[in-house]
Amino acid sequence: MELWRKARDLNRLQWQSLAFSLVMLPLIDISLRFAGYKRSRSVLAALSRSRSPATSDTDINQVAEQMARVVGVAGRRSPWPTTCLRQALMLWFLLTRRGIVCELRVGVENSVTTGFVAHAWVELQGRVLIGGEHAQARYVVLV
Question: By the 8 A CB rule, do 26 and 78 touch?
Fold first, then answer.
């Protein structure tokens, strides 16, 4: 019941972003598998260039948080398996399309207990939107 109540409360932008994310996440996965990270990101960047810049900081933060929640939901509910990299690329793409300048980060950690681990997240003005607050402190940024 809780899921339906939350779904009913989504606004138009959130519904559009959710539907778009559910379609795009498998496409991003396929692109990463066949074209690699660099080429996939370049294609997404090229597709996102045609949008106008965002307006105020309040709007930017609100839209970014809404889209981050929606991409997280799409990643968890998608029948197609997704990873942090796929979700981070999706959010970065959605925000960039709206003219919101954000950073897509990829980092690594090499510890005795977990071994070599990679992680991806998106930052807006130094704040992690998707990928967990621990990301900045735990991982060494590569990209």
Answer: yes
Flag whether 130 is in a domain: no
Model confidence pLDDT, tens digit, residues 101-120: 999 999 998 877 778 889 99
Does the residue 18 lie in any domain? yes
Residue 106 lies inside a defined structural domain of this protein: no
> Can you tell me the distance from the alpha carbon of 22 to that of 17, in angstroms, rounded to the nearest whole number?
9
| CB 21 within 8 Å of CB 94 | yes
**Which structural domain, as residue segments, surrounds residue 24?**
2-100
Domain count, the chain: 1
Q: How far apart are CA 22 and CA 20, in angstroms?
A: 6
**Do the domain assignments include residue 66?**
yes
pTM as predicted: 0.89
Strand order in the sheet with 103-111: 127-130, 115-124, 103-111, 140-141
Task: Tell me the DSSP string of 89-136.
Answer: HHHHHHHHHTT---EEEEEEEEETTTEEEEEEEEEETTEEEES-TTHH
Tell me how crowded residue 59 is: count the other CB atoms within 10 A of its CB.
Answer: 12
